[in-house]
Structures are given as C-alpha cells and as structure tokens.
C-alpha cells in the first residue's frame, strides 16, 4: 500500500487498489459444467446402485440385531426411505425407456417418409395407466387395487355430499 503523510488529512474519495473478487459458481446451474443428460448420468454413476444395495442389506441386518425400540424405529424409517427411493428410481427409468422407445418409433416412421405424430400429455397418461393396469393384472394385484380405489372414491363422494343432519 501507498504510504501517506500523517500530517495531511486523508481525502474523502481516496484511490484504493481493487482486489479481484473470487466468483463462486454452482456447477448445478452453470453452463460451463455442461448439459444434464439423465442417460449419461445414470451410466456414469451406476456404481452407486451396488453401494446403495449393500447399505440397504447392512441396515436390514442391523434392524434384525437391534433391541432398542427407538433405534429400531429409526432404522425402519431409513429402510423405508431407501426402498421408496429405489422404487422411484425404477419408475423414472421405466418412464425414460418408454420415452426413448416412442422417439425411436417416430424416427423409424420419419425414415419411411411418414409425417411425425407426437402424443399429447393426456394420451401419454392414458398409455401409462393402461400399462399400469396390465402390470397389476400380470402380478394378480388388480382386484385389490380396484377395491381400494373404489373405497377411496366412495369416501370422496361421501365428503362432497351435503351433511344429512336429523334435527
């Protein structure tokens, strides 16, 4: 820094040497980090699935050995969360595969010289629902699913009706 005389008063707007401010960047939102592609991400970090599987088995073993009720409850919650995450990941993977297959079909049709046809969101939802029902039918859980759905809808209808008070 520049030495200043103690006899002379310091100027109000003095010249200060500027220091370059360090710019922090978040790789999740930065363009320099590239574009997020789920397929590439899943391939790159596929080794995590095996680690998660090992961790889940470890938690299950701990749950069997555990005697403390509070600890057991925490472990059970952890196991449930792990299972739910696994199911969600499988669901996402199925959805991605379905999207890719639709894209491939469109490309094939385009190669044959036909005009591309893109499904609406509602049509995609209908196809998804039909697939879900077919899967439930294959596994034999369709009836229980439908009875639960009927009960849920009956409860909703009951709530919507005006209350019947005898007065």
TrEMBL record:
What keywords sit in the KW lines?
Nucleus, Ribonucleoprotein, Ribosome biogenesis, rRNA processing
In terms of Pfam families, this protein maps to: RRP36
Q: Name one GO cellular component term.
A: nucleolus
Question: Is Translocase among the key words of this record?
Answer: no
According to its UniProt record, where is this protein located? Nucleus, Nucleolus
Region Disordered: start and end of each range?
82-117, 141-167
Biological process (GO) annotations? maturation of SSU-rRNA from tricistronic rRNA transcript (SSU-rRNA, 5.8S rRNA, LSU-rRNA)
The biased composition feature labelled Basic residues covers 147-167
Q: Where is the composition biased (Basic and acidic residues)?
A: 94-111
Q: What does this protein do?
A: Component of the 90S pre-ribosome involved in the maturation of rRNAs. Required for early cleavages of the pre-RNAs in the 40S ribosomal subunit maturation pathway.
Q: How does it assemble?
A: Associates with 90S and pre-40S pre-ribosomal particles.
Belongs to which family? Belongs to the RRP36 family.
Q: Entry's PANTHER family?
A: RIBOSOMAL RNA PROCESSING PROTEIN 36 HOMOLOG
This chain's protein is named rRNA biogenesis protein RRP36
Q: Which organism is it from?
A: Indicator maculatus (spotted honeyguide)
């Amino acid at each position: 820094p520049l030495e200043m005389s103690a006899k002379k008063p310091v100027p109000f707007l003095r010249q200060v040497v500027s220091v370059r401010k360090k710019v922090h960047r978040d790789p999740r939102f930065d363009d320099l980090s590239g574009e997020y592609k789920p397929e590439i991400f899943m391939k790159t970090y596929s080794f995590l699935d095996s680690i998660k599987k090992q961790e889940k088995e470890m938690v299950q073993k701990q749950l069997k050995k555990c005697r403390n009720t509070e600890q057991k409850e925490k472990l059970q919650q952890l196991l449930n969360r792990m299972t739910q995450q696994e199911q969600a990941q499988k669901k996402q993977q199925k959805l991605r595969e379905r999207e890719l297959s639709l894209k491939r079909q469109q490309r094939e049709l385009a190669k044959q010289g036909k005009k591309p046809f893109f499904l609406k969101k509602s049509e995609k939802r209908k196809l998804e629902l039909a697939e879900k029902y077919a899967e439930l039918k294959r596994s034999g859980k369709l009836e229980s699913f439908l009875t639960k759905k009927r009960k849920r809808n009956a409860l909703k209808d009951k709530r919507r009706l005006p209350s019947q008070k005898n007065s």
